[in-house]
């Protein structure tokens, strides 16, 4: 085996075996058992996987849970000591009153002063030491201080969707424009006032929590010294958040890389069976059973008597249907229990919900119970009381799997109607069963997903998935400073470029078994259209099609490049006209184009004209009569996505393959955020590691310029679409937003940490290790004999290096000559056109098996133009690079590699001979680049699923559940609505108006005050003047002065 592969094998696969010995500390300091269910299940699952798990909890250990799972500290405290027994009054304080939430967190944090906890914190075990800490996420993040003290990753588990103050901890987008906060009820819809109210509530809750919870800093300093970070700083160093949600239930929205959905992890068909008496009662309930419980924190018997009477009357009326209700303290009831109601102080909820006779679940809308109800396909009546229950309920009602009523405003007629509607209308049950299938259908189980990412942060470092958003202020992330600057420029009348732009292995086996079980029994028919004539891009597209064909689907392909050898289930049905062997770039074309990115647009200007090809016209005509395809797979490249119109005509889901990182305009197709505060424009790149204000401003300008340029060409697409597919076809803007899924040839380890919607799947590297070509024997001898290493030089299939100027090539030649005896393996499409003074250590070939060369143990460096495919191959095989970008995303790729210390970048038209000499010497002699290449390669390879498995799962997912399953609500909003610019503008204008009124009032007040003071001063002076005159005259005459107020005749 090659040396590099051995190193990488030890760094990745080997480490996955070693990870079975991790030592994990779990902390659950809260006296609330319902939320402990998830934490406990997670820790037990990790113990099952071979990890050593220690637990700190407030609940005494009743029995040994697992040989690898040990409770080491039992913290003091009962729920009643922290908050009173939950009733309506105390529950609703946990909504608007964030001081109650913060006080609760402070009381929980007081236990960090527990002697046993302090002893562990100050003297942690060393043989073996802890590798990671897992604790609960709510309002007591003080316990994460152990991660700082021990310098290990901290993983938080949120047992609900994220509360407003949690997003900032990991740089997650708040999605306030279309995602309601989960503490305060918000009206339906996305109107301006709804978004304004949600924005106000969301930020009020967030900043209130930040304000009230700073008192945790006092406890941290008290027990760990004055130099300990604040709780806000500790929060911003969290490595990973596991969240008890899953998008089919909780909605499609963008999420950052280190926020992982594990919704339903607690749902396990384990534990003791139903006790015989209860099982017999359920079995005998042939007319059905209603399960009624408000969980462990809220007691039904504490409700007002009038409310209980209404509930019991309705439940009595549904007989012979029976009711199973949880009543912890029945002696507190003041209302007689109906005959068809069976009450227990505790109910094994999961076991009951999966019983065949359960027809309805009446619940407060808590996430755990409602997830169980959905999992087992039971419709719900939700009576929300507190916190996320409102949001959960609104969500379920919108999906038509539940109905809701206001518990404290319950009316007999409404309650009767609602219960009977849910029992007798099959729509709710059918919808719940459909959602149950979506909830269960995932590429990995929730437990396997959680375990992988926990092990990942241990293997690859606590900051591997840290978002760059955490280094920006909130207004920088929202680009408010950039928006205000643009507004200021507009108001000043500076209508320049800116104004114009703005206005215009085991896991693998399990996965394979899982895929086989859930895959469609007949195999789907897929129409694949790849109209771009770039051979290198076809490498990715062809591999995607082959993966699906190998899975048993029938893939019919339209492209410029029919297969040379047959492949089962892969059929080339139409070969597009040859406009050249492939798209290629001549040096003169490159240097004569003012905007190099425009070259690619011009090269593909007539690509949509292929819609008029007689074979495609005949295919569309036949399919209109009888559609035989299940899905359209199409290549989205640069500015031409017109072939997705065929999906509209045939009513097919459209799945796109992007062979690069997403271009800026593609994000809007599926409601993906642009992330302009942290992510440079794919077409322009950015050399510095962090962007200042001017960099972000420029990024916004260039991004919207490219979007404007793209939509400026949309009319061309509309022209061809209407010409060849019918004048009644919708506008292209509508067609592009029908995209069900985008598979991007990218990966966060390389392209950066940023939020993305579930409709964007990263399949970077799918083409790697699928090249079956072997090295030529003469070339192999050269490489094997190169004991000092060799350099590989290739600018891919689109760039003709032999057409470069003699001056540039001479710089290469001189540099290569100075590298001797190190050989340089060079690719040129036509070697005979290269200058004749070729150095003896340079070997030029018209074609080379790139992957075979990059994985050779003797390779020292790769000279590349920065194309996405070649750079990913170099990353995979851990080869340092010298990047010489030419156009399009190559600049972005090279800048990214340079910032990761994996490459050096040269500008082909400005770099001097000394620059070339330095770059080669540095890459070949400085071990830092090889070290960084190995580190990045390990992270790049370390994935829960292979790219091919991602393709299979998500394409089949779209086929199973339809084109809109992954659709984000953001797609239905205008860009300024999604960015809340109208809301921010309204707030800004309100503040400006308030300030203006305040200034006006102050001005009027000061003016009035000034006038009065001036008048008083004049009167005072007049009095003083008259009095002084009279006194002076009196003294002269020897008489007293006369009164000045006396009337004069």
From TrEMBL:
Gene3D superfamilies: Glycogen Phosphorylase B (3.40.50.2000). It comes from the Eukaryota. SUPFAM superfamilies: UDP-Glycosyltransferase/glycogen phosphorylase. Keywords: Glycosyltransferase, Membrane, Signal, Transferase, Transmembrane, Transmembrane helix. Residues 1020-1049 are annotated as: Disordered. The chain crosses the membrane at residues 983-1006. PROSITE patterns: UDPGT. One of its GO terms (molecular function) is UDP-glycosyltransferase activity. InterPro entries: UDP-glycosyltransferase, UDP_glucos_trans, UDP_glycos_trans_CS. Belongs to the UDP-glycosyltransferase family. PANTHER family: EG:EG0003.4 PROTEIN-RELATED, FI06409P-RELATED. This is UDP-glycosyltransferases domain-containing protein. It comes from Trichomalopsis sarcophagae.
